[in-house]
């Protein structure tokens, strides 16, 4: 009885804070994609829209003695390191957003595609050598010891790679997923580029599978504790095979999935999804094959996807495993909670659409069932919370709404731009800007920060990086969500 009462109270809280505002989802979509231009590394194009950013890291790969062009790509968050693992996941989710919701993006579709290509051009560079993946550019310790603009960087641009001797099936598997997913995006837009992406995905996946191991074992001092793989590499192998199956329709990948679904732990930690853990995403992605009547041999993934839904829904009864803040926000302990909010909400919406097309619902035990419309409502509730329907009445997207974070934990945004302050700002000279109570001088439009704590409180302070730092992998799934709700606001 106590559990039932708590569930009812939670539902009342969600309803009480439900959207009373009609949000401008198109405006938010535009800004969520624009954010990626603020994260660009390398030589910026003439059509760069965030003008306060300039060229940066133009010697990546050369100045580290590697002799390989590793310019381009994205800085993952508020620092100036290029971490391959989260960048690849970002690319996969941007691609999935376009695959499922690109038809809802209108004129923003071309900008979303450009955001994917900025990443894939870089991923093609880091995978150009067979059985090698360059997975990081920049020494995280020296970078995090400075507060300087990417345009001024003088920290070590050390290059790290995985290979046959030092494997990294996790980061290589995610890179293969990104390339395969992006090949679908470009299939009709640029067939030649699409084939290049798919062929490279096949090659990188073979490397990931043939030389198994976690990259945080091979490169621990470089990648931990920043993007250490806590979950192991098995999920990335299934994830990579799932995207290659979707992109190529080759039987070998379906057979790989069927053969390895239990060996590689398809049913593990079903309510987790993010750059480190792909389990819920694997199950939702592959369940579409079952729901569309294309492949009943994958029914285990459909069962796992249903379990995921029951674990995340407030009314999932004894199956519920997700915490919600008093204001109704999905909450998981650890830094950057919004990464969980957007990724899990994306899966809710994607699965809702798959269920709706198949005219199915999810059974959560007893007489409880969850409809596709309930999944959609919960996903929309999370998006609306981000955009301002929350106890603080604050948008957690920079530049959207009347009230949003002003002191974002982001070097380029918080320091004077090169246009305003042409002289170099040294490593420690930026500290006074970091500690300043003033607002960031450069608006990182569209950036969604880590978000409030479990009590819906938000400090809006740069030193509180867990709450105030934006990341590319927060925004990537949000792009798809905003596109859908722009087209279907009610």
Automatic annotation (TrEMBL):
Organism: Kingdonia uniflora
Single GO MF annotation: cellulase activity
UniProt KW keywords: Carbohydrate metabolism, Cellulose degradation, Glycosidase, Hydrolase, Polysaccharide degradation, Signal
PROSITE patterns: GH9_2, GH9_3
Its EC number(s): 3.2.1.4
InterPro entries from the UniProt entry: 6-hairpin_glycosidase_sf (IPR008928), 6hp_glycosidase-like_sf (IPR012341), Glyco_hydro_9 (IPR001701), Glyco_hydro_9_Asp/Glu_AS (IPR033126), Glyco_hydro_9_His_AS (IPR018221)
Any GO BP: cellulose catabolic process
Reactions catalysed according to its record: Endohydrolysis of (1->4)-beta-D-glucosidic linkages in cellulose, lichenin and cereal beta-D-glucans
Family statement: Belongs to the glycosyl hydrolase 9 (cellulase E) family.
PANTHER family assigned: ENDO-1,4-BETA-GLUCANASE
Signal peptide: 1-18
Residues annotated as the enzyme's active site: 409, 460, 469
Name the record gives this protein: Endoglucanase
Glycoside hydrolase family domain location: 25-482
Lineage, uppermost ranks: Eukaryota, Viridiplantae, Streptophyta, Embryophyta, Tracheophyta
